[in-house]
Design brief:
By secondary structure, the chain is an alpha+beta fold. Helix content is about 20%, strand content about 35%. It has one domain: Metallo-beta-lactamase, Chain A (4-Layer Sandwich), CATH 3.60.15.10. The chain has a 7-stranded mixed beta sheet. Strands 10-11-12-13-14-15-16 form a 7-stranded mixed beta sheet. A hairpin with a 7-residue loop joins strand 14 and strand 15. The N and C termini lie close together (about 5 Å).
Length: about 280
């Protein structure tokens, strides 16, 4: 899909499985299971959704997914597929890792930044050797010293090689990365998470990552249990859903396995999602 001179595509990074109760927090299972049925291990399927943006002669990747650096035990827990779904998806649209100019991480949890790095001949290296990796400065600082509450979400091998290679491009707060492409803080999941906005040709899109991981999380109190600051999430969702409804934004969901993107509309007193195909 084109936003003026900016081209945006959805990149599918594969399916993985997380505990359904954790993904819906205080919402009772009889309610959320109607939307996303669980398997025998109480897991629901989630997508690792990414955006490939072409703008100003540059290739920009928003999110890098789970990556491939997983042992057999964790592959079983999370249901990771073999291979590298992200690089396979990029190859299908003719983009090689060395052709990526910018990578934007909304935050550094493993399911959003795991593909930042990979193992080559037993050595950890940046997956995209010529790219600047954009993240909130405070997010990297937190990732290096997480709390007991969220340390299971961070793996140093996803970000330390980027530091060693000198490839970080730090931002502090809301910031324009390139003309028409900006990041904006959307706190709640943690304090440093950022959304990615794309504007052009009279259209607007925002990758909301874990603020609204799937279309089933549109109801304000449907907040994932992983959020460090759920009441902050509530207010951030209230603000942005109102903005999306009022001004017709396309919303890109971080983990929806069926609708990677859509527009929001009010129907019978509820907010519903109409899917949008970014690759049409």
């Amino acid at each position: 899909m084109h936003f003026g001179e900016i081209e945006v595509r959805h990149i599918h990074g594969g399916i993985f499985w997380l505990d359904g109760g954790s993904m819906f927090g205080v919402v009772p299972k009889p309610l959320w299971e109607k939307k996303m049925p669980a398997d025998a291990r109480n897991r629901i399927p989630l997508a690792a959704n990414s955006l490939l943006v072409r703008a100003g002669g540059k290739n920009i990747l928003v999110e890098t997914g789970n990556g491939t650096k997983w042992d057999a035990k964790l592959r079983n827990i999370y249901g990771f597929a073999e291979g590298d779904p992200y690089l396979d998806s990029l190859a299908k649209v003719g983009v090689k890792p060395e052709q990526m100019d910018v990578v934007i991480n909304t935050h550094l949890h493993f399911d959003h930044a795991g593909g930042n790095t990979r193992l080559v001949d037993g050595k950890l290296v940046p997956t995209f050797p010529n790219a600047n990796y954009v993240v909130q400065r405070a997010e990297l600082e937190h990732a290096m010293h997480p709390t007991e509450r969220d340390r299971a979400s961070y793996y140093a091998h996803d970000f330390t090689p980027i530091t060693e290679a000198g490839q970080w491009q730090f931002v502090d707060g809301d910031c324009e990365i390139l003309p028409g492409i900006s990041v904006v803080k959307i706190p709640g999941h943690n304090l440093q998470i950022q959304g990615v906005q794309i504007r052009g040709g009279g259209k607007k899109l925002m990758m909301v990552a874990d603020l609204i991981p799937t279309r089933h999380h549109l109801p304000l109190p449907w907040i994932i249990a992983y959020d460090l600051y759920p009441l902050t999430t509530l207010e951030t969702k209230r603000k942005w859903i109102a903005e999306f409804l009022k001004n017709g934004w396309i919303v890109a969901f971080g983990h929806d396995p069926d609708f990677p993107a859509g527009t929001l509309h009010e129907q019978d007193g509820k907010v519903v999602c109409e899917p949008v195909d970014l690759n049409s």
